[in-house]
Amino acid sequence: DVKVTQSSRYLVKRTGEKVFLECVQDMDHENMFWYRQDPGLGLRLIYFSYDVKMKEKGDIPEGYSVSREKKERFSLILESASTNQTSMYLCASRDSKDGYTFGSGTRLTVV
Amino acid sequence: AQSVAQPEDQVNVAEGNPLTVKCTYSVSGNPYLFWYVQYPNRGLQFFLKYITGDNLVKGSYGFEAEFNKSQTSFHLKKPSALVSDSALYFCAVRGPTNDYKLSFGAGTTVTVRA
Q: How far apart are CA B21 and CA B28, in angstroms?
């Protein structure tokens, strides 16, 4: 089975901190995605990546950046965390048959 | 732009009754349609998908979804609901282009009472 691992289940950070959320997949998938999940809004796409060093903005990229230096790792960066970035963050990877596998999520609280 | 609408925030049914979770979509070209489920304190799990072929897609635990192109819908159904079906259900769509972006609906919370 494909595994998508998000390094932290819960994080609490202070306003203004730089925050790194890490995601690793173990199946050599080219496509990886970062979503945030908020009640009543569903999942919204922040950034995605076609392959190493390639990235594209999703629907809500403001305040975020990403890094994909290696195929298996896709990092989400909050340059200066704000309280409105308190959310559940979900990473996903996609296989060649349109199988999207999600990680367990990181619940980030910015205080 | 592609989008998904799940018109009901919550669906409440009695165990043994039919369950329907509604989904309509908007996308350019032929859609790729998905249902995901999220149980309390669990991650998002793939449930079923439609890409091509038979409009009726059968999933696990007795669920099925029917693709209706004229109504741009992909409703999830189960003839007889169980308490264990209680969860948050998400419908998602992507278009046939090569960006592979999935767009999700807001989600529907299903509660099945004993």
A: 23
Q: Which CATH superfamily is domain B3-113 in?
A: Immunoglobulins (2.60.40.10)
Each residue of A81-100: pLDDT tens digit? 999 999 999 999 998 888 89
Q: Strand pairing partners for B56?
A: B66
A75 within 8 A of A66, measured Cβ to Cβ: yes
Mean pLDDT for A24-48 is 94
Say yes or no for a CB contact (<8 Å) between B104 and A33.
no
Low-confidence spans in chain B with pLDDT less than 70 = none
Record: contact B49-A98, CB cut-off 8 A: yes
The angle at the Cα of A70, spanning A69 to A74, to the nearest 5 degrees, equals 75
Domains with residue ranges and CATH for chain A? 4-110 (2.60.40.10)
Chain B residues whose CB is inside 8 A of the A6 CB are none
Look over chain A and give the mean of its residue pLDDT values, rounded to a whole number.
94
